[in-house]
Amino acid sequence: MAPRDFRTRLVKRASKGGLFLPDELAAGLTAYYELLARWNQKINLTALDNPDEAIDRLLLEPVVATKQLTRPDVSIMDVGSGGGSPAIPMKLVVPASKLTMVEVKARKSAFLREAVRSLGLAQTTVETSRYEELLARPELHEAFDVLSLRAIRVEVRTLLTLQAFVKPGGMILLFRGPTGPDSPELVPPLRWLTTVALIEALQSRLTVLQKIR
Fold first, then answer.
1. What are the phi and psi torsion angles at 151 (to 5°)?
2. Residue 103's Cα: distance from chain center in Å?
3. What are 40-77's pLDDT values in tens digits?
4. Going by C-beta distance under 8 Å and a sequence separation of 6 or more, which residues neighbour residue 127?
5. What confidence tens digit (pLDDT) does each residue in 150-185 have?
């Protein structure tokens, strides 16, 4: 699909879901998707078989999720970044944010670095590492306002590990499907704030947790 045709499809898809995409954001999301589609022919980054579903899940879900961010210069860690969603679309919506993407697989990390370069994403870094290994770096402890997570099994132990990267008062954003309770099992210092609908067609949800001060 030509970039202009894809952009038209993207804007229409967003409008159907009640979202307005400014021209610059629509252009950025289109450029990201086109890069993802090219790389996806060489390495398996994500499923793109159904274009409308891919637009909803990879591009529009993160756009909706950024409504939870409280200021433009927020610092974000995205764990298990894979093909770059939700991290890169969130960065495109909030360009003043500081983004760190964590991806253990070298080939996917190579794509993420190319996306950062190609899209001109300032204040954006890629860590090729397991998130557990990053705990050995003191400068990353309680360094982020927001931690985002998709396609990683959410257990109490996982959340307790991940909260170490989040500032007191900061949030964890869990991108989730239609099944399961609104909140996972939690122990302090995490508490459930809210669960909101993302994309109606996917019945997807965003669960927002907060790290207690």
1. 65, 25
2. 12
3. 988 888 878 888 999 999 999 999 999 999 899 999 99
4. 100, 101, 102, 103, 134
5. 977 788 899 999 999 999 999 999 999 988 888 888
DSSP string, 108-170: HHHHHHHHHHHHT-TTEEEE-S-GGGGGG-GGGTT-EEEEEEESS---HHHHHHHGGGEEEEE
Q: How far apart are CA 86 and CA 66, in angstroms?
A: 10
The structure tokens 């045709």 sit at: 5
Identify the structural domains of the chain with CATH numbers, from first to last. Answer: 64-211 (3.40.50.150)
Contact 33, 59 (CB under 8 A): yes
38 contact partners, CB below 8 Å, separation of at least 6: none
